[in-house]
Design a protein that fits this description.
The complex is a heterodimer of chains A (156) and B (75). Chain A contains six helices and five strands. With 156 residues, chain A is an alpha/beta fold. Chain A has helices at 15-30, 72-75, 80-94, 100-109, 118-123, 140-147, and strands spanning 5-10, 34-39, 113-117, 136-138, 152-155. In chain A, helix 5 links the parallel strand 3 and strand 4 (136-138). Helix content of chain A is 38%, strand content 15%. By secondary structure, chain B is of the alpha+beta class. Chain B is globular, with a radius of gyration of 11 Å. The two termini of chain B are 18 Å apart. The mean pLDDT of chain B is 96. Chain B has helices spanning 16-26, 43-54; strands at 5-9, 33-38, 57-64, 67-73. The relative contact order of chain B is 0.27. Chain B has a single domain, classed as TusA-like domain (Translation Initiation Factor IF3), CATH 3.30.110.40. Chain B is built from two helices and four strands. Chain B has a four-stranded mixed β-sheet, with helices on one face. Classes of the chains: A alpha/beta (156), B alpha+beta (75). Chain A binds chain B through residues 23, 26-27, 29-32, 95-98, 103, 106, 110, and chain B through 11-16, 18-19, 21-23, 39-40, 50, 53-54.
């Protein structure tokens, strides 16, 4: 059976949206798949050395379960994002959900290849030193070469 | 059932039971049996799918003392 392949385009940098590329990437790699994750725009957050700044906001996010109903004007107050983020992280830890750092390490250990989109790296004035070692930098054509051969290709 | 190694994934949520089962199998030889214990209800269908896609045979899948117990034979 030929090795299956998956390509993911990771475009989001909030706590909830940082998980799916890392969960699917680590799982597919565990199943023996070749995986590449192309990180662009806010998805570049997945590649930063320090992931502690990745947050979740209750603002404009009516699907987020809250302990008490929260009016938009309250969700917009300073400190609410930090509070929601620390509550979410505490809940995840309690339920045995891996941290982003752990999932990313598991991906790297199992040879998931991460590619930082050079255009957005330059757009946001990131330095290569902002990112973890071992990633590649490239553009759309580089991604398409691999994506064209995949069994699963996801935009997240 | 006899087994050669055990991995306790109790308390771990998706995808850790699967990803770490794969890691546990890495240093085992073909034909050896791994016993996996999990508390994540999703691991029941995930373990079946893992076995089907990786060539590691799932010898059994059951419940013991409120936990899920799987026996995998390394392929």
């Amino acid at each position: 059976m030929p090795t299956k392949k998956m390509a993911i385009i990771a475009t989001k940098g909030t706590l909830d949206m940082a998980y799916p590329p890392l969960i699917l990437g680590s799982t597919a790699a565990a199943l023996g798949w070749d995986v590449q994750v192309f990180c662009t725009f806010y998805g570049l957050q997945l590649l930063r050395k320090d992931l502690s700044g990745i947050a979740i906001s209750p603002l404009a996010n009516p699907a987020m379960p809250m302990p008490v109903p929260m009016p938009v004007m309250v969700a917009a107050l300073p400190g609410m994002e930090a509070m929601a983020t620390s509550m979410m992280k505490a809940k995840m830890k309690k339920k045995g959900v891996a941290s982003l750092e752990e999932l990313r390490s598991l991906c790297i250990e199992s040879d998931v290849k991460f590619i930082a989109c050079q255009m957005t790296v330059d757009l946001f004035d990131f330095q290569r030193s902002d990112f973890i070692d071992g990633i590649e930098f490239g553009g759309a054509a580089m991604f398409m070469k691999f994506a064209g051969e995949t069994d699963v290709c996801l935009f997240i | 059932m006899d087994y050669d190694k055990e991995f306790d994934a109790s308390g771990l949520a998706c995808p850790l039971p699967i990803v770490k089962t794969k890691k546990s199998l890495a240093d085992m030889s073909a034909g050896q049996v791994l016993r996996v214990i999990a508390t994540d209800p999703g691991s029941v269908s995930d373990m079946a799918a893992f076995a089907a896609q990786t060539g590691n045979a799932r010898l059994s899948s059951g419940e013991e003392g409120g936990k899920y117990v799987f026996f995998l034979k390394k392929g």
